[in-house]
Write a structure and sequence with these properties.
With 331 residues, the chain is an all-alpha fold. It contains 15 helices and no strands. It folds into two domains: 160 residues, Orthogonal Bundle (Globin-like), CATH 1.10.490; 142 residues, no CATH class.
Length: 331
Amino acid sequence: MHQTNKTQALDGQLAAASPAQLAQLWAKRYVISVEEYNEQGSDASLESRPAIVEHLTSELRSASAKAWNLTESLLAQEVKRHRINSTLIDPWSVAGDVRRVYVKALMAYANYISPRQLSVKIASSLGAIRKRYTAGDPRLIGFVSMQFHHCGQMLVEAAPQEERDLLFSYFKVIDDHLYMPLQRAYEAAARYAYDDERLKVIQALLPYSTEIANTVVNRVNQLYPNYQCYTDLLNSEVVRMSSVRDTEMFQIYLWTCVLEQSLAPIQQELFPLCVMLYPTLKVNWELVRQMLHLLGREFNRYVEQEQVQHYAPYHQALWEMFSPSVFPDVI
């Protein structure tokens, strides 16, 4: 079994984890990459953090409006092409949710509540937002999550340079819970007995999802060093961060399928979202296939051979859905 120094501390918790604790495991997993960062910030930030929050709160309305315009310009044609009922997209409702969520994140930052604590505190409310928007049409979450994401990016850019990495870790909590069906996975996990083999597979892989995503994205970037997406080159920092998030997103959808014992999460939500977003963002389908192939290789490093059977059918289904017979374009 593969193991790193950063994740060894999770072993005891994994051994005793109950389904209800998966949310905390996720929070601990994703902040591993920022745990070495001094969460108190620099001496200057100790004095200026309230001022930063005041400034970013004042910028929130403008950032939300700009994010909406950018999201609409990117997806307006896709909404028509996919025959999504545009009346289901209420800009005032989305704007209100954006403000409430980002104010909570900024208050956590102002009060030195760690991103890990924020993730646990805000998980249920973000899950409720996600559930509300997907109830009318699961594809709406692509529009909504992109709006939240762009708003967060604009707030980070409006912050002092020395605080941007730390603020990004707070806003990543929001991205994770909106792009990924985390609450749905937690609810499905809670229906299992503690010693169920499917649950054990998720407990084995979930804490390593960021490590797996980074490994996969690094390899894809090596294979396609000159590939250009909508935003920038594939190996640019901004595209790399989005690629890591998407690779984690695929993993969470896969684990949700395993827990629900159904292809519905990827058939009804993930696949339509990718068809709507990836051509617009100039993500070639060959990149998705490479990612899926590499994910399978990485999973094998963390589980026993007999555990593979629990996720293999769903992983194979993902491959078939994005196969060259469906999307023949190559790089």
